[in-house]
Structures are given as structure tokens and as C-alpha cells.
Amino acid sequence: MQKLLLLVAVCCLLTTSLTAQELKKYAEPLASQSPKKYINEALQKNPATTIEAAGLFYNLGLSYSYLNQEEKAVEYLIKSKKLFEKKGMTSVAKDVSLEIHCVIASQEHYNKYSDNFLSEFYNYAKQNESAHRLALAYNEFGKMDLDEWQKDSISNPVKLNHSEKMFKTALQFNKKDSKPGTAAKIYHNLFAVYLFRGKMEKARKYQDTAFVFAKKENNAEEIFTGNYSVGLTYFYEENYVAAISWFKQAEPIKLAYYGQKYQRLLYKKMMESYDALNDQPNRRKYQKLYLDLEAKINDEQQNIAIHETEQKYHLEEKNKEISTLQNFREKFNKNRLVYAVLLFLVFLMALYSFVRWKKVDYYKKKLQTEKLQVQEEKQVIEEVHLKTVEELEKVKKIVTEGHIILKDNTKVYMADLMYVKAEDHYLNLYSKDGKKHFVRGKISDILNELPPNFLKCHRSYIVNTNYINTYGKGAVILKNREKIPVSRNFKF
User: Fold this and answer.
1) How far is C-alpha 431 from the chain's CA centre?
2) Which pairs from 71-75 meet CB under 8 Å and 24+ separation?
3) What digits encode the pLDDT tens for the residues 126-163?
4) Tens digit of pLDDT for each residue in 265-302?
5) What is the DSSP string of 146-178?
6) DSSP letter (8 states) at residue 107
């Protein structure tokens, strides 16, 4: 199966956070309804207070993000965050941190950003035991795992499993807070996990649940993404007619958040679908729409500007820390004598406590010496026993510590093993270098010893899912173009 890069892009775009009520009250409806008009009016205003200025910058950031001008969005959101912090409005400032992370994470082809803003938001949520904020944070952590999984040259199932764990943790916190919009995002991301695994029916069930929550809040972004994503499942099943049907349901939906980027993804997939059906007039129509938006959005230029803004902010924060240390040093020099007396008194108290503790500790150690000696001897005996058992178990196994040892002491490593074929009482091992090896054994014996990415797809075959390129009816095609049969009732 080809890598689902477009879906990851969708997951990254699903970053418009449902922030706390404190931040929501600063949002201006005009910023989402008519962002260009809001920007023109806002830039003419002269805020009378710091709070008013913070709210103005926040809405300018949202407006620019709606227009896909993320470099300006990040710039104004950081200004807003600083002003809220200046007024001691910590919770609002932390919510803005999440907004900044989400805008940065929405960028395509951008690998330079750190998770500093997300970590800042998560630490505050954890400290205050905020269920809603923790749900949002774990949802973002899961998406970062999905992104990392997609970057691996050979996809790592451990990273994908950890991503699913993050999303399910997010759901647990969301159940305490009952936010439908957040639930819709999390269920959509679980849909992505199962799509990556090639389990289309399971993926669509998660998306159906996401639809239920999205429609409760009439969330246009989630409804658009849901239709697009279901279309993707049919696209990768090569059912292009069904895929186009779902894509067309998404096409007329008007979006505030990252609208052009959503449309660009949709147009590209519709172009590819019509091309697969050899419908060239429609293919050319959507190719033009896609290329127009590609040129208009200009990811590379935005990424450079965002990177510079982010680096400038972190540099300012470091300079603040340095300035604080310098102020402390100056105060210390002025009151050196007082600090010296206090330190000497603390030292005397610590010395007295230490002497008393040593006396008590001496008697405790004397009483425990024999007991510790007995425990150490017992531990040595147990370790020898366990080591012996482990060695015996290794002899019994076909797979030992991530590899199979053949009669000529050749090692076949799990990462290189493409599939196993059973013939009579022997197992033929096919590795990615094209070599064939065999060991004596049964397919049921080796299956229990292989990692979870090895699946028995036929009574005589076990396949390494990391080497599957495409899925077909009754067979899968590996990356070396080799065809492996699949039993009728088997599902990946």
C-alpha cells in the first residue's frame, strides 16, 4: 500500500483547538466570518489597554490563519501570548500556546518546529488537572507520533501503537469534560491509525463515530474532513467511483480554518481519482484547481518565515532567563555578608543533624548486615536459576533474540525476513536480499515466536506486513513485486 501522506496532512490540519472559555470570550466573530475585513479594521485600531491589545492580536492571529497566512498568524499569536502573560493571565496565555502549536503543526513539509509550545500547554494542564486541556494535549501528542511514524523509511508499528494509546488517553480525559468537538477530532485521528494499518472497515467505523460528534456542534471542518477521509478509504481500495462520491460531499463545505489547504488536498485526490477512471476532462479541471492553490499557498516561503519567528521568540525567552540571573547576581553581591552568615548558620544546623543521623544509621546498619548477606545469597541463586531457564528456553525456540539461527550458524534477522512458507516439515524463509533459507519446524510454532507485524495470511504463509506494497483480492503484493496468496476469510 502506498504511503498515506495526504491523510497525515489532514491530521495536521485538524488543529483548530477548542480552547477554554476564558480564551473564547476574546474571539471576535468577524475574524472567522470575514477575516480580510477584520484585519483591515483591526489594523486601524489603537487599543486603550493591554488586555484589549492582547485580544486584538489574538484575533489577528486567527484571521491570518483562516487565510492560510500562517507566518503572520504565528507572529500575532506570540504577541498576544506575551501581553496576556504580562497581565498575569496565565491560563489564557497557555491556551494561546496551544493555538500557536496548532498553527505551526498545520504546515506541510515543515520539519523544523519543536514541541516547546505544546509542552508548555501540557505542563500547565497537568499541573491544574484540567481534563479538557489534557484531552487536547494528548490528541496533539498522538498526531506527532503519527507524523513520526509516517517519516520512517520502514514504518514502525511501535510508534503507531503509541499513537493509538495517546488518542485513547485523550478520549478518557474528554469523557470527563464532554466536549463533542474534541471527541470528533480524536475519533477522526483513531480513524487515521486504522487506515495506516490497512483496516478500512474499522477505520470507517471510527469515522462514523467522529461524524456523530461533529454534527452535534455543526463543525464544518470535521464534517469536511470526515467526508474526505472516508473517500480516501475507498480510493485506496481502488473503488474510485465511491471515493469521488464522498469527495463531492466535502467539496461544497465552506471552511474558516485553513480552508485553502483543505481544498488543495481534496482537489489533488479528485484529480487522481478521475485520472484512474480515465475521465480526462474532470482530471484536468481538478488539476488546475489544485495547481492554482499550490502556487497561492506557497508552503516553502511560509515555513521559512514561521521558523524565523519561532526562533526569535525562543531567543527572547532565553535572554529573559539570562537577565533574571544577572539581577540575582547583583542582589547577591550587595548582600554578600548577610547571605554568608545565613549560610554558616545553615551549615552548623546541617552538621549537627548529620552527626545525629550517623549515630542512628550506624546501629541500623549493624542490625541489617546479616539480613542483607542472606538476601544477596538468595538473589545470586535465583539469578543463576533464571539464567539456566532462559538458556533452556532459547534452545527450544526457532526465533532467538530477533533472529533465526540456521544449521550453518547463519542468522536471518526479523527486520530482513519478508515472508515464511511452510512445506512438509520445513519452513522456507525468504529475506529481502532475495535469498532463501530453511529450518525444520511447523508454521504454528514459529508464528507464536514472531513479532506482531508478522501475520498468517494463508495456511502455508506468514507475511511481514512491513514489506506489503498493495492489497488485492486473494493476494498481497510485496515491495519486490512478489505475490503472496491470502485466504478467503483472512482480513488484515
Assistant:
1) 31
2) 71/301, 71/302, 71/305, 71/306, 71/309, 73/103, 74/100, 74/103, 74/104, 74/306, 74/309, 74/310, 75/309
3) 999 989 899 999 999 998 888 877 776 556 788 889 99
4) 899 999 999 999 999 999 999 999 888 887 776 544 45
5) HHHHHHSSS--HHHHHHHHHHHHHHHHHHHHH-
6) -
Contact 61, 92 (CB under 8 A): no
SS (H, E, C) 424-459: CCEEEEEECCCCEEEEECCHHHHHCCCCCCEEEEEC
Grid cell 548577610 — which residue? 338
Return the exposure string of 447-475: e unless at least 16 CB atoms fall within 10 Å of the residue's CB, then b. eeebeebbbbbbeebbbbbbbbeebeeee
Tell me how many degrees the CA angle 241-212-222 measures, rounded to the nearest 5. Answer: 65
Closest to 188 in 3D by CA, of 177, 174, 450, 176: 174
Q: State yes or no: pLDDT of 105 exceeds 60.
A: yes
Q: Which of 413, 16, 382, 46 is nearest to 222 (CA)?
A: 16
Give yes or no for residue 263 having a pLDDT over 90.
Answer: no
**CA-based nearest residue to 14, from 129, 147, 127, 122:** 147
The DSSP code for 467 is G
347 by Cβ neighbours in 10 Å (0-12 / 13-18 / 19+) ranks as exposed
- Phi and psi at 413, nearest 5°, equal -85, 145
Q: Work out the pLDDT band at 317, boundaries 50, 70, 90.
A: low
Burial category of 224 from C-beta neighbours within 10 Å (exposed 0-12, middle 13-18, buried 19 and up): buried
Task: Please return the burial class of 270, using the count of CB atoms within 10 Å of its CB with bins 0-12, 13-18 and 19+.
Answer: buried
pLDDT, tens digit, for every residue of 427-461?
A: 999 999 888 888 888 888 888 888 889 999 998 99
Asked if residues 27 and 59 have their Cβ atoms less than 8 Å apart, the reply is: yes
Give dist(CA 442, CA 423) in Å, integer: 9
H or E segment at 28? none
What is the identity of the amino acid at 4? L
Per-residue model confidence as pLDDT tens digits over 412-430 = 888 899 999 999 888 999 9
DSSP-derived secondary structure letter, 237: T
Residue pair 189/146 in contact (Cβ under 8 Å)? The answer is: yes
pTM of the model: 0.56
